[in-house]
Structures are given as C-alpha cells and as structure tokens.
Amino acid sequence: MHSTSKDRQLGLYDKSVTICLDRGESQYPRVYQRASSKPPPEISDHSSCREHKDDTVISDIKCELEKIWEHYPTGGYNFFLPRDKLGGIVTPNRVLQVVQLLTCCKALSAAEKEKLRDSICFPDNPEQQRWKLLVILLRNGMQEQLLILCGEGVSDQCLPIRVCEKNKNPPPCRMQGHRHPTIDAWGDKKRRKISQWSYAVKSPYFTRLTGHHSHYILEDNDVLPIKKTRERLSSPDAPTAHQKPETENEQGAIVSGFSEVRIVELDEGHYDFPESDLGSWNRKRGPRQFALKELHSKDSETFSAELASLMRVQDQGSKHLIKVVVTFEIRQAQGTKYYFMFPCAQGDLWLFWKEHQQRSQRIPRALWMSQQVSCLAKGLMLFHNERDHHLKLMGKSHNTGHGKDQQAELYGRHGDMKAENILWFEEEDCNDPNERDWLVITDFGLGRLNSKYSRSGVDPTLVPRTATYKAPEFDLTGGRISRVSDVFSFGCVCLEFLTWYLEGWEAVNDKFIEFRMELDINGFEVDTFFTIENYKKDKDGNVIDKEKQKAIIKPRVKEWINKLKRNKDRSAYTLQFLELIEERMLEPEPKKRITTSELVHELDLLADTCKRSSSFYKDFCESLPPRSG
Q1: Which residues does residue 266 pair with via DSSP β-bridges, in sequence order?
Q2: Confidence grade of residue 388 (pLDDT, cut at 50, 70, 90)
Q3: Residues 155/133, Cβ–Cβ less than 8 Å
Q4: DSSP annotation of 355
Q5: How far apart are the C-alpha atoms of 130 and 159, rounded to whole Å?
Q6: Are 16 and 213 in contact (CB under 8 A)?
C-alpha cells in the first residue's frame, strides 16, 4: 500500500512511538551494578545439582539453568531463560569462580582474573557485558573458548547468533564491522545449538517510556517470554451460532477473519508497564495475563492505521476504551506478522451475563447498568471524534462533497459493535458492585478496515461486519453506511443487556435469538434485528425495483420489546431505556436514527436520574405516561 506523507504521521510514524530494535536490552535494569550493596540473590541450595564426578560451580550453574528454562507453550523446541532468574544464577561471585577454574585462564594472575570478571559483569560500557555469552558457553561445555571469543570482540551485544542458511557463508555479526572467526568456523550443528541458546537468553523485555508507545521489531527465531497460553476467557456458542463463527485453533486462540487472539501469561521478569496501562486484574484468577492479538494481514499500513486508532482513543483517557500495552512485529521470510498486546479482561459482556444469572445478581444492577451503557456511548463518541482528527491529518475532510462525506463517515465507524467486543474488567478487593465491575469497548479493527473498502469503491454490502448486529443499510441496495450504523449495532447490544437484566441468561443466550430467527434476503435463516421488504431479483440475479425496498425492524423484535415492557421487574428506567432503543437507536432509516452525541445526552439523563433517585430504577412502573403533543 502506498504511504503518503500525511499517512506517515500516523501509527508507527507518530512521533510518540519508540521503535525498539534491541529486544528491550537498553531498557532492562542492569543486572550487575558495581556499587550495589544488594547483588542478585543466589540460589543457596545446590546439593541436588551436584554431579558425582564434577562437584564444581560449573555443574551447579548448568543444572540450575535447566531448572529455570521455560518451554514455549505452543509446541516445538523453543525455550527461554527468564531474565530475573538468570541474574540469580550467574552472579559476579560465581563468574569469578568460573574464571578461576578455566584452563584457558590459568596463566592469568589473580588481579587479571578479577579484571576479566569485571569485563564480563561490569564493563565501562554496559553494552559490552559478556555474562550471557558465558551462560551459553557454560551450558554447552564450551567455556574454554571464553578468552578467544573475548579477544575477537564478542559480547552480549552480538547475540543472538544467527543461524547459517544452507550452502551460504556465515551471516555477519549484528554489530556493524564485527567478524568473529571462531564463530564463523563452527559447523552448522554447533552453530544451531548455540544460536538456540543465544535466543533463549535474549527473550524480549517489554516496557515503555512515559508518554510514548513502544513497538518492538523481532526476528522469526525470537522466543516470546510466554509461560502459558490459552483460549479467550469466554466463547459463548449461541450468540455466534447463527452467523459465521469465530473458531479456536489447536493452540486455543480465538480466530476471526482478520485476526486471532489468545490469552497469554508472560514471565514477570520480562515486562514492566505502568499499572494505569493494565487495568485491574483479580489475582484470585491467577497470575496477570494479557490478550495477544495477531493480525492476519501482513501489510504494515493496515497495522499502522489500527495502531493510530488505538493510540488516539488512548489519549482520551477513557476507562471504557481499551488500551494497547505494547506492539511488536516478527519479520519472517514469508512476510511480517504484526501483534497487539492488551490488558486481559475477566471476560466479555457475554461472560458477565453468564456469571450473573440469578435474579438477585441482576436486578440490583440497574444503577450500574445505567452508568456503564452511558460510559460506553461516550467511548463510542470519543472514537468517532478521534476519527475526525485522524481524517484531518490525512487530508480527508468530509465537507467537500458527497463522495468524500461518505468516505469520512465510513472511515469514522467502529464497525463491529457487539457484546463480544465489550470487555468486562473487575477491580480486585472491591465489594461495591457499582465500583468493582466496568465495561470497555475493544477491537477497532473493522472500523479501520472499512476505510479501505470505501477507498476502493467496493459495494457496502460486502463490507466486513458481524451479521447479527448489522444495520439495515448493509442490506439495502444503495444503502449508505455511516457512524449511526454503529448506533444501530449498539442498540442491539443494549436490547440484549435489558433482556439479560429483566429475563436472565437463558433468555439472552437462547430464547431471544431463536425468537427473532427468520429468512433474510438471500434465503438464509438469520438472527438480525431487521428485515428488508420488497427485495426482488430478476432471473439473472439483478436487484429490481430498488426504490420499493424498505427496511423495518422485525415484528418479532418488537414483540420481544413489548414483552420486556410487561416484565414484572420493569421500572421507569427500563421503560424509558426500551423506548429509546426501539424508537431512536433501532430506527431503520439512518437519517432519522439518533446520533452518537444525542445518544450520549439521552443516556446521561437516564444515568443521572438513576443516581439522583433510586425509585426511578427500583420501583415498579406500570407504564410510561403518554407523550404530550
């Protein structure tokens, strides 16, 4: 994809993005500091590591290295050595003991041996440390080559050692101008073994500078510091059973058409992020985890555009918009893979509904629900406003004619509002349900992709979206997609929210879906919230009588809304919320549908009224008074 100068102001090209080329080495706290009064803790019990014939510090180190290595959980032979544990095994004192044992160092005086230890652990230039090199040599029984390699200028900065391609000369050192004859002379088998260990000791360290976003550039052989990986915390079948589903691959990742997401546990010694970036994590659920999203697209501009969206909404400071923690790319011969890392939620909105099924868990949540849907609407509005800023940077102002207006409207959508893309976070050790749980909008990918389709002139009916929550304009011939398409989708989610609140989990997860199932314009049974009247095609498949087409809300959906209005737990709040959904959010005609800013105002009024008067949401209400006029 061609990148213009204005495009390059965004995403990866933003001045606040820090590109990390050294796997985080320069940001990792120095393991050894000469003046430190508290050296890295040593492992004191070495008895289980003693070998019968070699009762030395070298055998202790080798044994302890085997104990700490972490096998990469997705299979294969990859592993990494946790950085913080390495420092407790290969301490300065032990390095000196190793030097004193080496045959190659016998000719050195005691002072020279200490000087060699210092050059390994405390060089004047911290980048010239060699203790990781020593780890690799010790583990592979090659410690006697230490002096030769030091003499050739090999340091930790030269690691990891690249593998030779078949029938090709050894690749150059990572340090420009360096050549290492000893390493170049190694055979393929030895070099591959040493290379594997060199990647193991250089597993990335993820962090970021205040006010900056960190993006890491990694290689195909880099081993991510992942201890465990598993599927997303919730994967309800009913909500996706009647549309093209997301699927799980063999590693438990959730796979969609544009990306796959897996939940990962990183080694704690390999990251350091501000708590404000991470959200809350309930430790009762185990060690902190992250959501790792891999894009299927290998196009850098696709990745950069999505990153730009995430960075801009992050700047808004909303608790209800997802924050990207770090990004990285893995460069491979077949193309580059792009990744986003996010805080891991307790689950999505479906899981929240599922875990709060009892009436006693639902009905007291009215005040909380009013606050959350209001904040989600504000988050959506912030996202739309961010797109305005984004468009100005790219020179795509939408007041210069119908075509560009449509392009801007399409570009300014979230594009995939659904319960699966609303995450549930939980504050640890908080007993107030109105403060403990909060909801967050995530996955801006489809909104970003929609701009691509608008620029290429593709039929809007082919634009990616989740079928269940799509707005009527997706199916209308000549229908125009806009930001209020997001409002319709959000209205569907809000109706499901009230279904859970008034009727319970089984109703939202099963009954309501089955209740609204009917054939769509293509003859498929779908659970959308609308239908198209007078949709006709001729014998050649061409749509005819386009002007007679009309979108309406499915009568069964209206029946369901009326059922909720008769629920024994209805209140003035639920009745007014249902009215807002039915008459303004699920309005079939986009021009008559409520805008995001108007929706924020209406939901704010409902939330404020709930806050001021508990009777508004607690007391039974027979019906709303008729409107005047």
Answers
A1: 226
A2: low
A3: yes
A4: H
A5: 10
A6: yes
Token pair for 123: 């060089």
pLDDT one-digit tens code per residue, 611-627: 999 999 999 999 887 76
What's the rounded mean pLDDT across residues 365-384? 93
CA distances (Å), origin 179, targets 132, 156, 184, 579: 19, 14, 8, 74
| Per-residue pLDDT band at 129 (split at 50, 70, 90) | very high
Alpha carbon separation from 393 to 11, 396, 483, 534 (Å, rounded): 12, 8, 19, 42
Residue found under tokens 């040599």: 137
Q: Are 27 and 207 in contact (CB under 8 A)?
A: yes
Q: Which one-letter amino acid corresponds to residue 489?
A: S
Identify each DSSP E strand in 400-478 by its residue range.
Answer: 422-426, 437-441
Tokens of residue 420, six digits: 């699966």
> What's the burial of 623, exposed, middle or buried (CB within 10 Å: 0-12/13-18/19+)?
exposed
CA gap 335, 327 in Å, rounded: 17
Q: Where are the alpha helices (DSSP H) in 440-511?
A: 445-456, 484-503, 505-506
- Helix 572-580 to helix 366-393 angle (10° resolution) is 30
- The C-alpha atoms of residue 205 and residue 453 are separated, in whole angstroms, by 37
**Tokens standing for residue 352:** 């929240």
* Token pair belonging to 212: 């900056």
Contact 416, 466 (CB under 8 A): yes
Cβ proximity of 488 and 585 under 8 Å? yes
Residues 6+ apart with CB under 8 A from 307: 11, 12, 17, 213, 215, 324, 327, 340
Query: Which residues are CB-neighbours of 132 under 8 A, at least 6 positions away?
Result: 86, 156, 159, 198, 201, 202
Q: Are 438 and 430 in contact (CB under 8 A)?
A: no
DSSP3 helix / strand / coil % (the chain, rounded to 5): 45, 15, 40
Q: Report the distance separating Cα 312 and Cα 387, nearest Å.
A: 9
Residues 163-211 have pLDDT tens digits of 877 667 778 888 767 788 999 888 888 988 999 999 999 999 999 888 8
Higher pLDDT, 577 or 210: 577
Beta-carbon contacts of residue 350 (< 8 Å; ≥ 6 apart): 234, 236, 239, 419, 420, 509
Q: Per residue in 80-107, is it b (16+ CB within 10 Å) or e — as a string? A: bbbbbbbbbbbbbebbbbbbeebeebee
Packing angle of the helix pair 596-612, 366-393 (nearest 10 deg): 150
